[in-house]
Amino acid sequence: MTSLAPVPATVHPGLPRERGGWWHDFVCPTHGTELSHAGIPGPVPPASGVRCPHGCTVDTELVRGAWLVLSHQAWARRARVLAHRAARTGDQASRAEAVALLVGYADVYAEVAGGGEHERAQDWMLRGRLFHQALTDAVWAVSIGHAVWSLAEADPGRAGDLAPALGMLDATAEAARAARGRLVADGRFTSNYTAWLNAAGRVCSRAAALVRGSQDAPRVADDEWLAGEHGQLAHALAASTPGGWEWEASTYYHGFVVRAYLLSLRGTDPADLPAEARDRLVAMIDVLASLATDGGVLPSVHDGPYVRPALALEWTELAALADGFVADAGLDAVAAHARTEAAAGDGDDEAADGLEDELRAMAPGWFGGPPLAVARPPRPAVSVDEEVGIAVLRGPGIHAVLDHGPHGAGHGHHDKLALALFGRRTPWQPDPGQVPYGHPAWRARYASAAAHPVVRVDDADPAEATGRVLARDERSLTVEVRGDATSWYDGARAVRHVLLGDGYLLDVAHARADRPRRLTLGLRPDVPLGVRTDGDVVRTAWRGTEALDGVHAARAAGPDGAVPVRAVVVPGPGPADDPQRERAHVDWAAEGATSATWVSVYQADAQARGGGSDVTHVELAAAEVRVHRADGAVDVHPLPDALAGGPTDGPAGSGTTA
């Protein structure tokens, strides 16, 4: 039995000795941007305040609390990296600093969190002890627990050095169980919090057992945190669709829970998991691989940062874990793109700390068995999860995401029927993401319909709504949303039909209303956008690392006949990483209309699309779209029944003005 003789607690000189707040308050109140991470990790927030990218200095109690969250999390991450490295290489300097951090945190935790739940947390929060939120406690505790786990497992004879951490590990596991119980009692078992509370419970319990000298882990079936009634495997099945999407359909929160699952499965053989849970975890990894562009860009569907170096590190960690769980996880491009983003951080030393390398080099590996070998069919050109309403269309040089499902609860946006457009690495028309939640005005803006490339009615935000698939085949998808007194826009309906043509993507959006209203389709780029009228069409030029060209036409009608449809360019905020970055927005609107139809043909440059003739013109007839090409060919696309029979017969380009 390993000796548990106490080691004097020596607080690491860099550790904060205050409780943390809520990281979402780490935002400039003037500009809506996340504040600078310079000086993190450290013991205390800068005395003069924290700077924002636009030159402000912010020093409030909320910002100080948020800074402390980020510093605590960064120190816990450092302890974990050092512990993994010491366990792998035997490096004594890494071990000594890791032990000092962990023993120091045991002292800090007893001093500042021993009094129970955080008294300054907001009323709506599931209260934590070291932080405002129990979720934040759990994320921090997973890093701390894995650090202890690595050191105690690699060198059982010196596990007694970690005995001072036992009280902290036991307390965090107990707190995780209590917080999970409150979620279950409130009918919120499927919350993303549960995944991290289970991870904290399992990791800290296992770490404490190793310090106490127990080298034998319980079987998966006997581990309450994994296979219990409210454990990880039950949560994965309850909180995701059979197709693998986390129920909120948020890219960020999807990756967030998958990472928690894989972190909690350390030491287990993937093949020993129950088949249904094992297959679901593989499907959840596959969702990310399918959503990402070939260049590794992950569209930020619903709530989540648009670009954030700290998040990029989470993607590299997840990619490493996924590769250990399933062979050919398909996230190599995501990891490579994330490394580039992480390296762009502003003084955050985590970007070069080597966590991903340690995970990939661990012996015998993160899991207790080899990666699962899974036979996967070829990726289809059009893939749809109808339960969450996310479709991915992979065309020639164009990667499109069509969002049409449920709102997504508290992490949802008013993005019904939004069409995001990407190249391999270029965000031509992305989902704009979300600012830190502590800025209510910008948070509301980025959740609004005006921030997304959607149909709007009277420039108002709609009610929450759920769309549905009307038709789909190997090359196209047609989706619809209907409004009533409690859903979307009362008395209105919209349909969007997206088709992968020969060297282009065809997008047709149609809206109807029960009375004359302003019907608008928005274009929301994150690249320089040129817009010009050319006869009866509008042409757009989307520039970036890769180029995209659009040819557009529209028509509309009201009670007295045809109504002009005007494409108006207006300055607007760029995506949520910096609301002050101005972009050219297009509002393509019909005033006093009862119906409107907009048709767009998007074409990547010839090299990206593999050659083929350029599109020169597009016509919208009553029941079909005609795409004219430079070589004289005309592609005719019949419209689905939901779109056919528009307000006027004949070509519709004449109704378009700019």
TrEMBL record:
This is Heparinase II/III-family protein. The lineage of its organism: Bacteria, Bacillati, Actinomycetota, Actinomycetes, Micrococcales. Keywords: Lyase, Periplasm, Signal. Residues 386-490 form the Heparinase II/III-like C-terminal domain. It comes from the Bacteria. The keyword Nucleotide-binding does not apply. It is found in: Periplasm. It holds the Pfam family Hepar_II_III_C. The keyword Iron-sulfur does not apply. Residues 639-658 are annotated as: Disordered.
